[in-house]
Structures are given as structure tokens and as C-alpha cells.
Amino acid sequence: AEIHYHQGAYSAALEGAQQTLTIANEIQSVTLEGFALLNASRVFGDLGQYAKAIAYYEHMLNNIRETHTPR
């Protein structure tokens, strides 16, 4: 997904991010999910779809807050 993003192949980048999200959920990897959400949000931002970009960023930030909050 990262390579596609840098090449401007946004459709392929989003598809890769979606596949990564699926895998992250299957293996319950918050870190992998975070990278996928970040990549998707960057693509949506570049496409001018700011509401979607913000939603993906917020999802990523919420995951970080939930998993890195001191107990």
C-alpha cells in the first residue's frame, strides 16, 4: 500500500490498506491496524475526502489511546 501511495496509485493503496485492516483484525494486531488506518487516511486526504481522512485518523488515535493508556 505504501508503494502504491507514493506512486499516486490511490485505488491500489486503498485496496492494500483494506486488506491490511482485514489481516490486522484477524490476527488482532493493533499496530498493523494503526499502519493501515494511517495509510488509508493519507490517501483520503490527498483525494480531498477530508471527512473520511479525519475518521480514519480518529480511529487510529482512539486505538493508540486505548492501548497505551497507563493503568
Q: How would you summarize what this structure contains?
A:
The chain contains four helices and no strands. By secondary structure, it is mainly alpha-helical. Helix 2 runs antiparallel to helix 3 and helix 3 (about 30-45) packs antiparallel against helix 4 (about 50-65).
Overview of this structure, please?
The structure is a single chain. The protein has 4 helices and no strands. Helix 2 runs antiparallel to helix 3 and helix 3 packs antiparallel against helix 4. The termini are far apart. The mean pLDDT is 92.
Radius of gyration: 12 Å
Largest sheet: none
User: SSE string, helix = H, strand = E?
Assistant: HHHH
What class, by secondary structure content?
mainly alpha
Please work out how many helical segments DSSP would assign.
4
Task: Classify the helix fraction into a percent range.
Answer: over 70%
Low-confidence stretches: none
What's the overall geometry?
A: globular
What is the strand tally?
A: 0
- Beta-strand fraction estimate: under 5%
Overall pLDDT metric? 92
Distance between the amino and carboxyl termini = 34 Å
Record the SSE blueprint.
Blueprint: H1 2-7, H2 10-27, H3 30-46, H4 50-67
What brief labels describe this structure?
71 residues; mainly alpha
